[in-house]
Amino acid sequence: MTTPAKNPENRYVNDLRRLEYGQSQFFGMRGIVVPLGLSVLFLAIVGLLVGRLYSDLGNETLIVVIAAIVGGYMALNIGANDVANNMGPAVGGKVLTVLGAVLIAGICETAGALLAGGDVVSTVSKGIISPESGEISAENFRFLMLAALFAAGLWINLATWLSAPVSTTHSIVGGVLGAGVAASGFGLVDWDTMSLIAASWVISPVFGGAVAAGLLYLIKIKILNVEDRITAAKKWVPILIAVMAAAFTAYMATKGLSKVWKPSSLEIVIASVAAFVIAHWFAKPHIARKIVGRKNIKKDMYGLFDVPLIIGVALLSFAHGANDVANAVGPLAAIVSTLSGADEVASKVDIPIWVMVVGAFGIAIGLALFGPKLIAVVGEKITRLNSPRAYCVALSSAMTVLIASNLGLPVSSTHIAIGAVFGVGFLREYVENPNKRKLRPGHKLNATADDAFDAIAAHRKRRLVRRNFALSIAAAWVVTVPASALLSAIIYWLLQLL
C-alpha cells in the first residue's frame, strides 16, 4: 500500500512555526542570559585585576582572588535587591521611568560608596565578631569572612529571584554570625555590637515610617487640604526643598568630605543654614514658574514635588552607597587586612581603594542588570504612591540612612524604606477614612448574605495598605538572619575540609 504524499504547504507551515517558537525562546532567554553573561564578565575582570595586583603573595594570591570575586558577587546582589528600595517610590509615583531611576541610582550609589563608605566598613568587618581575642587564626578568619560573603550573596540572589525585597544588612550580619559561631563557638561573637545592630533593625522601620507619615501629614494640612492650594504651595514647597538641601549638606560635611575637610560642629551648622537659605532662594522662583497655569486642585499640585522627589532619591542613593557598600566589601577588607604574613588578625582594617571600587561598581552593575524587577515590586505592591507620597518616603528613608551612617551602624535600608512606605499608607487610611470603624463588618446585622459580603468588600477597599504583602515581607525579614547564618556555617565547614 502506498502512503499519500505529504502536503508541502503543511511542511512549510510547520517549519515556520518551529522558527517562530525558536525565536520566542531565544528572545525570552536573552533577558536572562545577557545579564548573567555580563555579571560573569564583571567578576572575571575583578578576579584578573586583583590576581595581577597581588601576584607576589604566592599561595595567598588565590585566596584574595576568590574573596574579590565573592565580594563582587555580593555587590551585584545588593544592587539587584536593595537599591530597589531607593528607586521604587519615584517609579511608583510615576516621576521617573525605570531607565531614569537606574541611571540616577547608579551614579549616586557609586559616588556614595567611594566618598563616604569607609567608616561603616570597619563596623561590619570587625565589629560583629572579636577575632583579636586570639581564639581564631588568620587563615580561619579568612575562611569565616569568605563564608559570610558567599552565604549572604546566595541568600540575596534567591530572594531576588523570588521578588522578595530582603535586607542585605541582615544577610551579611547573619553570615558573619553563623560562620563565627561555626569557627569558634558563641564566645567569638561581640554580643554588645550585635545588640546595637538588632536594636537598629527595630528602630529603623519605625523611625522611617514615623518621619514619612509626619512629612505627608504636613504636606496635607499645609498644601493639599487648604482652600488656596496655589498660595500654600508657593510658600511650603520651597521650604521642603530647602530642608532637604540642609540635610544633605550636613551629611556631606560630616561624612562625604571628611577625607579633605574636617569641620567643627559650628561649621556644619553654618554650612547647613547657608544651604537652606540658598536652596530656598533658588526654589522659590522655580516653584512660582511651575505653578503658572495650574488649577487649584490636588492633582495639579502633585507635579510640584517631582524635582524634590528626584533630589530625594538621589540623596537616598548616595546614602545607600555610603552605608551598604560595607555589606559587600567589609568582609573582603577584613580578609585583605590579614595578608601581613603573620598568623594573626590585624587590629585595624586598612581599606584599599580597589576594595571600595569593587563594591561601588558591583552595586551599580547589579542595579542596571537585575534591579528593575524589584523596583516595580517596592513601588507598586504595598500602597499606591503619587509624587508627594513618594517624596515623603524618599526623604524619610534618606534622613534615617544618613543618621545611621553618621553613627557607623549598618542598618537595613530595606526596613527603613518599607517602613516609610507603610507609614505613608497607614496615614492615608487614617486621614482619608475617618469613618472606617463604622464600616467594619459585624458592627451591625446585615439583612442578607450579599449585604454582608458587600460590607466586607467595602471595608477592604478602604484598606489602602496591602496587608498580605506586609506579611510576606515580614516573613522574609524573619527568615533572612537564620537562613544566611545556617548557609554561612555550612560553607565554613566545607572550606575547612578543602
From TrEMBL:
<dbReference type="InterPro" id="IPR001204">
    <property type="entry name" value="Phos_transporter"/>
</dbReference>
<feature type="transmembrane region" description="Helical">
    <location>
        <begin position="195"/>
        <end position="216"/>
    </location>
</feature>
<keyword id="KW-0592">Phosphate transport</keyword>
<feature type="transmembrane region" description="Helical">
    <location>
        <begin position="143"/>
        <end position="164"/>
    </location>
</feature>
<keyword id="KW-0813">Transport</keyword>
<feature type="transmembrane region" description="Helical">
    <location>
        <begin position="469"/>
        <end position="495"/>
    </location>
</feature>
<keyword id="KW-1133">Transmembrane helix</keyword>
<protein>
    <recommendedName>
        <fullName>Phosphate transporter</fullName>
    </recommendedName>
</protein>
<feature type="transmembrane region" description="Helical">
    <location>
        <begin position="415"/>
        <end position="431"/>
    </location>
</feature>
<dbReference type="Pfam" id="PF01384">
    <property type="entry name" value="PHO4"/>
</dbReference>
<feature type="transmembrane region" description="Helical">
    <location>
        <begin position="27"/>
        <end position="50"/>
    </location>
</feature>
<feature type="transmembrane region" description="Helical">
    <location>
        <begin position="390"/>
        <end position="409"/>
    </location>
</feature>
<feature type="transmembrane region" description="Helical">
    <location>
        <begin position="304"/>
        <end position="322"/>
    </location>
</feature>
<feature type="transmembrane region" description="Helical">
    <location>
        <begin position="236"/>
        <end position="253"/>
    </location>
</feature>
<feature type="transmembrane region" description="Helical">
    <location>
        <begin position="351"/>
        <end position="370"/>
    </location>
</feature>
<feature type="transmembrane region" description="Helical">
    <location>
        <begin position="62"/>
        <end position="83"/>
    </location>
</feature>
<keyword id="KW-0472">Membrane</keyword>
<feature type="transmembrane region" description="Helical">
    <location>
        <begin position="95"/>
        <end position="116"/>
    </location>
</feature>
<feature type="transmembrane region" description="Helical">
    <location>
        <begin position="265"/>
        <end position="283"/>
    </location>
</feature>
<comment type="similarity">
    <text>Belongs to the inorganic phosphate transporter (PiT) (TC 2.A.20) family.</text>
</comment>
<keyword id="KW-0812">Transmembrane</keyword>
